[in-house]
Amino acid sequence: MAPMSQTPPRPLPRRLARPLLGVGLLGIGLLAACGGRGAAGWAVDRVVDSKFAVQSADTDTLAARLAGPEPPLLLDVREPHEYAVSHLPAARNLPPGADPASVLADVPRDRPVVVYCSVGWRSADMARRMAAAGFSDVTNMRGSIFRWVAQGRPLVDGRGAPTTRVHAFGPPWSWLVPPVNRAPGDP
């Protein structure tokens, strides 16, 4: 099956990446305050793209692929306690610090894989590491689980029961999740 395609953006030189990240995060906060979650989500996408040169696809593209005859392997690149709150149906948990070559030894290197996390940062890093480990068709879900839940798409909890809640990761990121979708105890 052909990869979900968008030409990966070229990464920024290292000397520009850190200052741009700081400015980008400040900008995301301002956009969230002034322009709402949509504008802030767009800004997060730009910051992720500037840091990681990986293939990405939006949630509509992923939803269509999941409904198709050969769905990709879904990997949730969040910590186990985040995964237990909710995850996409059929997703497998791959903690951010895991070594993809050893943990995914059972996965053919040419199998289509889609990775996601909370906003796309940890999953983009995993997509980069998976490509370096020889996986040839890895796509980062743009907007990740926060955008997925904000669009009303299905999630399940650790027991497999449907849920509309998601772990909001932490105060700097919780404003990307509609309050009704935040897990109890999240900011």
For the record, the CATH class of the largest domain is Alpha Beta
Number of domains: 2
Radius of gyration: 16 Å
Number of strands: 7
Key phrases:
187 residues, two-stranded antiparallel sheet, 5-stranded parallel sheet, 7 helices, alpha/beta, Oxidized Rhodanese, domain 1
Write the layout of secondary structure elements.
Elements: H1 14-51, E1 56-57, H2 59-67, E2 73-76, H3 80-85, E3 92-93, H4 100-103, E4 113-116, H5 121-132, E5 138-141, H6 144-150, E6 155-156, E7 162-163, H7 171-174
Parallel strand pairs: 1-5, 2-3, 2-4, 4-5
Antiparallel strand pairs: 6-7
Provide a concise account of the structure shown.
The protein has helices spanning 14-51, 59-67, 80-85, 100-103, 121-132, 144-150, 171-174, and strands spanning 56-57, 73-76, 92-93, 113-116, 138-141, 155-156, 162-163. The protein is of the alpha/beta class.
What does this molecule look like?
Helix content is 43%, strand content 11%. By secondary structure, it is an alpha/beta fold. It folds into two domains: 16-51; 54-181, Oxidized Rhodanese, domain 1 (3-Layer(aba) Sandwich), CATH 3.40.250.10. The protein is globular, with a radius of gyration of 16 Å.
